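Input:
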Amino acid sequence: MENLGLDVFVASIGLKNLITGLAALAGLFVITTQNAIISVFNLIVLYILVAFYLIYIGITYLGISYIVVYIGAIAILFLFVIMMIDIEYVVKRSKNYLPLLLLLLGGFIFTLKSIFYNIGILKFKSLNFKEEDAFLVNWDKEILFNTSYTQTPLSNSLSLNQDWNSQIISGFNFEIYSSLQNIKEGKLINNDTNLIDNSNTLPYSNINQNLSMEGINPFMDNSNYLLIVPDWDSSLSRITQISAIGDVLYTVYHSYIYIVSVILLLGMVGAIILTADHHQYTKVLNIHHVKTSNVLGSLFILLNYIKTTFIHYFTCFKNKYYNRFYKFQFFLFSETSISPFSNWFSNDAVHSEEVLGTLVDFLVFDLIVGLLLLGINSSFSLSVKYLEKGGGFECGFTSFVQTRERYNVIFYRVSLLFLVFDLEIILIFPFPALYQKDQNNSKNNVLAFLYILIIGLIYELKEGALNIVKTAHSTDIDVKNR
Amino acid sequence: MIYKEMVILYNILEVLVVLVPVLMAVAFVTIAERKVMAAMQRRCGPNAVGVWGILQPFADALKLLVKEIIIPRQSNSLLFIIGPCITLIFALLGWAIIPLGEGLTIFDYELGVFFALAVSSIGSYGILISGWAANSKYAFMGAIRSTAQLLSYELVFSSIILVLILFSGSFSLTYIVECQQAVWNIFPLMPIALMFFIAILAETNRPPFDLPEAESELVAGFMTEHGASIFVFFFLGEYSSLILMSSFMSVFFLGGHHCPDLHKLFLDPILFVYYYLMSEFLSFYSQLLDFLFYYSSIYLNPHVIYNNNPENFIVKNTEMLNESFSSFSSKDTVFQSIDLLIDKIQGSYVLGFKIIIVVFFYIWVRASFPRFRYDQLMSLCWKELLPLVFAYILFSICLFYTFDMLPFGITF
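Output:
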């Protein structure tokens, strides 16, 4: 009963569950608040909490890219749309949205089930793994953790009954890593005689023997014994998530990156067309009236063709390998350590704590500075209040009209295009982090991805989508209609 | 338990050690800006407070802190205060990942570049929120303009970083700095560096891209309604992000804390003289010792002498002596130890000097270029810089592939 502070509270609940609970609260507020802007801010808080959750469970790269994409691009787009709404008017007319909330909760009951499973409220019965499933899990593990999958993973090079360890060990890097794992655990490694028992299946001793045969001591010079400091040299062969994802994305799942590029291209074209002046593009949008000489129309037909072919391909792929993909996702986001190799993400987990720690430190400092400044200011300043002082900065009058008016469509277009390009750059970022030798294939994939998007860029430049025209501020909709 | 608290205290102290000088630097950057602008426009500048007016920013800050906090009636008062706070927080948060010297980082993060991108993408919310919350026409227009500008130039910023990552093969700033030991990135990536400078000018809302704060059109842009300490948040946030961006410039392109051959240019002559004298002395001393050994050995056990020629013996003996002295007298080790020491000391100073140079460029640009029009600003980003950077990405991937230079397999 000594400590009943916040940290004990947090420890008893668990930071993870605290984050999830806060995220659920923020989600509730998104639906129930009447002011649209405040609800968008709640949405941003929700995004931040989800990103924190991802960072906390060790998925740092996805967490940070979540911040970059969702908060940096999507939420700003929402704000751009909502900011011009006359809020007092909306608040007067708005209803209680609790029934909608309940409906949505009913709709997402299955996701809720998984959330409860994660928290630990519900405990599922043991999943009855078939042989097929076991194979699939192994395959996905191999994709994430090993570099030896480059020989046609779809063509079933693995057999079902093969031992998981013995498959993985074929990679050289894993050997280094396994010895490093021993180092982390604090075992002593002797160069002359291997003190570590050979009953373990992992051939951690092989690397020592091999390297000492070559006359190289991988760890230290002129020392028989190595007293191990954890994490001193783990950078030797650390496959982080970004390189694992890049490996998957630019080699095995390259079809997905093509699909993504086409979707992004369509998004870019659609954003430009939707926000353009109507009289200029109505003909183009009607696909039957498209002339063959029209560049845009031919582009559309081409895109439709590509889209249908990809959708066909995708559905085939989905039917065939749905379980695999699902399992892959499951493994990527699951926090339970299924594998004996959960320590693979240990470095990321360490960094996740560090990320949150630095964030907290800086926030504390900024809080101190801000409170100090505000306190000094409020205590030393005079305050004489009268009516005119509280008014906004206008030309001598109090303002007659709402300030939150509609504004130029160019800003929406900018934010939409920014979203597309931001996603694209986030998807290219794993490319330099690849950890494999199949350079040609991955280079071709990334170049194809870039070329398809550069078509969109050229289209945008040709259309003059970002030309700021004075008359673009539309006045055709009557203000009274609101 | 005490240990845990000590760790927490240490972490906060670490943050203080970095951020308090940053906030002080903001003050000196403002006075430097005013002085340099004055010198470029042939006038005096502030010279009343303190020696050469050096205490002017502190007087200004004091004035701002004694003013009344006015929150307009029509505004959303909570968001009105939170907006500037967000600007300040996310301008200071970027300092966590800057390698301030050799092995001097608060948070040596392997995805440091992503951290910077995330921080800068959240930072734009401060302007948007405060501009919206003020509920004034000027503030609203300024906020919308500024956000669109920040979005567009963040795209250029992140794609330039992509080129850098392709070049160096790592996401951590420490690694990017260490890649520049041989040559700074500004030499192979000159056009990219210029574009980066333009992008950071626009990211910090500085002239000639200070559209949201254009006095003639929008009174003060998104900060029209803000005064007193809430304005101080904006002020600190803007100028600290200026310094942060110039430190990014110096880390990415100007070699960070590396300073190639400065000590070899200026300190080597001195060290050479020192070493020469030392070696002369040592050789004399060793020869003396040799003679002593020789004659003493003859005296003690003459049958041991394996060579009748005393000179040979002396030569061998001097070699041995030199080896024994080599731990502290050899040329290489002396140079290495002094180099290491100088590197450790000079790293942070070199980085500071580079940051000062970039900040001076900021001020120089402000003094010499007229303001852009808004459509010119957007077309510069979307029609000129972005296609160029994308072309550079394609070019660099192809180039690195042909010369087998792609940074595959590099772990960070």
